Amino acid sequence: MLLLNHRRALRLVGVLAVLTVLVFLLVGTDSNRGFVQHVDDWFLDVMVGARLDPLVWVAKGLAFAGSVWLNWPIRVVVMVLLAVRRRWLQLSAFVLAVATSEPLIGLLKGLYERPRPVGGLYATDSFSFPSGHAIAGAVTAVGIVIALLPPGPKRWRWEVQAAVFAGLMALSRTYLGVHWLSDVVGGTLLGVTLAVGWPALLQEVRERRGRAGAPIAPSADLAPEAR
After folding, report:
1. pTM of the prediction?
2. Cα(28)–Cα(114) distance, rounded to whole angstroms?
3. Mean pLDDT per segment of 10 residues, for the chain of length 227 residues?
4. Can you tell me the distance from the alpha carbon of 80 to that of 74, in angstroms, rounded to the nearest whole number?
């Protein structure tokens, strides 16, 4: 079992999806330095004003935790572990979350073509929205918890902690001045939606197939001879 209550998870995914679409629409329609950009500018000023050398190194460490150099090896190890344990449903959900999120990063960046903030602490060569670090970090952190831990209150706490870690890792990108706040908010929401959505959807499909294939019980109003 992936989730104790996948129907509740699907409702949560619905809320997350609405919030994700809302952020994406706000950014996409925020032309001529509107409300979203003003908030992003203000938040970037706060981050730049709060920079301290030790915190910069912490932010760089968190950014590295969401990079492809660490993210992909962890993903491969988790996939192999799930395959060895023959946990095919968990493996399918994790693979689908990764496989759908990665193409979306490049596709959405190319669609929005949003410039990055000026004066970041290291060079980047892609567009800003949404944050690929935020999407990949959320998919990996939350997806691993769902795939490896049994469902229950303990795992729920780990899921929340994984989402918080993914958010902090994403915020480190704003501290370093290479992303706007809305970049990481939209990316984190999208990543968590995919990480939770695929397990909930696969479990719903499996349960529906199970009900469809269940033997039909004999009707109670049939005579014993006809049963």
Report:
1. 0.87
2. 9
3. 73 95 93 85 94 92 85 94 93 95 95 91 87 92 89 80 85 92 95 93 86 52 35
4. 10
